[in-house]
Amino acid sequence: MWMLGLFGTAIGAGTLFLPINAGLGGFWPLAVMAVIAFPMTYLAHRGLCRFILSSSKPGSDITEVVTEHFGATAGKLITLLYFFTILPILLIYGVGLTNTVQSFMVHQLGMVPPPRILLSLGLILGLMAVIKLGEQMVVRVMSWLVYPFVLVLMGIGLYLAPDWNGAILEQAPTAGQFSLTLWLSIPALVFSFNHSPAISRFVVAQQNQYGEEAEAQTTRIEKYAVVMMVLVVMFFVFSCVFSLTPQELADAKAQNISILSYLGNKFDNPLMALLTPAVAFVAITKSFFGHYLGAREGLNGLISQQLRSQGKPVNLKAINSFSALFMVAAVWIAATLNPSILGMIESLCGPIIAALLFIMPMYAIRKVPAMRKYAGQPGNVVVIFIGSVAMSAILYSLLSL
User: Fold this and answer.
1) Whole-angstrom distance, CA of residue 230 vs CA of residue 309
2) Is 0.90 surpassed by the pTM of this model?
3) Cα 77 from Cα 371, distance rounded (Å)
4) How far apart are CA 281 and CA 324, in angstroms?
5) Does the structure show a pLDDT above 80 at 96?
6) Which stretches are transmembrane (predicted)?
């Protein structure tokens, strides 16, 4: 169940935008991304699992572990970073969901969609109504949706095979273009395979069940989950990229829609026209649920820390209500304004995720006695290098303004 839960948290909207971002740079950067996807994802998430397991108090979540190892101030800072790792992803899902439904209404149903401000509000309130049914129900539904989602992604990849063409192979980037494309694609790759919002709950669950054997169990589940992610996603990405031209990928980016919505509009096939937007809707909805739970954990942690530091009582029910209202308002504003999804991934989500997921556990290996046993492992160098590359992409984005 947890393998599917981790897969379900990672594989969503990011997967549906990865072919656009990765394919625009040509075949060779995409090939390198396929090679580094597994070690990058597995080693980084394994590091975060080990970090949470290093607490002297079994059952501690990520915010409590950070406070224990780095102190109250660092705890607040990392909790803030954790929250701002997930909040932009929620905003992206709000934008992506609104654009998917709007595109479906225009192209498949031939309808004039309602004003964007009302459409986005209705969709977000619908998602929140499902979450109100209970966290366990949401996790269960996410797990159920993984099976059909994997089958459909593989099915679409196979369906597109007869339309594969060599247009992407005609692009022969210079060494400079290749390096720049790969550099700016790393944040999108980090984002697409990121399942850190579920790691805290995953590790605590393994600790409760397996005790001293929790590390071996988390490592095993994590490895299988990442193998499944990489095989399914990279097959889907290559199939999409080979079936479209670079110009069509650029059109999809300009329209700010997912690859599935674009494919549904392109292919003159009633099944594809209906199936692809439906799958995009399910994928974004599924990941929204997983990331909402993580964002709520982060925001609740921030508010609780602030109240405790002021000696005030912590009312979890009131904090939950405030968190829900805040996130509904933030997602609604973003969905109404419709910023560039790929731009947000490149400049905001990827670099912030990299700081928390790649750099913090490696820093802890140097500073936390309980983590020292992991020092000197070759995988640590890979994690630090890719994390630094992903974080540096934000500098490029800022310099390009």
Assistant:
1) 43
2) no
3) 20
4) 21
5) yes
6) 77-97, 117-134, 141-161, 181-204, 224-244, 271-293, 314-335, 341-360, 381-399
What CA–CA distance (Å, rounded) separates 138 from 131? 6
Nearest-10 Cα torsion for 278, 281, 284, 285? -120
Question: Which residue type does 67 have?
Answer: T
**Cα–Cα dist 199/229, whole Å:** 15
Helix (H, G, I), strand (E, B) or coil at 254: helix
CA-to-CA distance for 373 and 297, rounded, in angstroms? Answer: 29
Q: What is the pLDDT of residue 398?
A: 65
Q: What is the DSSP string of 327-350?
A: HHHHHHHHHHH---HHHHIIIIIH
The 10s digit of each residue's pLDDT in 15-55 is 888 888 778 777 888 899 999 999 999 999 999 999 998 88
Q: CA-based Rg of the chain, rounded to a whole angstrom?
A: 21
How is residue 356 annotated by DSSP? I
Residue 219 has phi, psi (to 5 degrees) of -65, -45
Q: What residue numbers bound the domain in which 309 lies?
A: 2-399
pLDDT of residue 13: 67
Contact 350, 390 (CB under 8 A): yes
Instruction: Give, as one character, the DSSP assignment of residue 375.
Output: T
Closest CA to 189 of 372, 20, 363: 20
Length of the chain in residues, anyone? 401
Q: Is the dihedral of CA 105, 111, 114, 117 positive or negative?
A: positive
pLDDT attached to residue 383: 92
The dihedral built from the CA positions of residue 228, 167, 344 and 35, taken in this order, carries a sign that is positive
Q: Which of 83-87, 201-205, 210-214, 332-336 has the lowest mean pLDDT?
A: 83-87
How many Å apart are CA 101 and CA 123, to the nearest integer?
Answer: 9
Residue where the block lists tokens 């031209």:
245
Tokens of 153: 């992604």
Alpha-carbon span 124 to 88, nearest angstrom: 15
User: How many domains does one find in the chain?
Assistant: 1
| CATH number, position 281 | 1.20.1740.10
Q: Give one DSSP letter per residue of 160-216, joined into a string.
A: HGGG--SGGGG----HHHHHHHHHHHHHHHHHHH--HHHHHHHHHHHHHHHGGGHHH
CA distance 59 to 62: 10
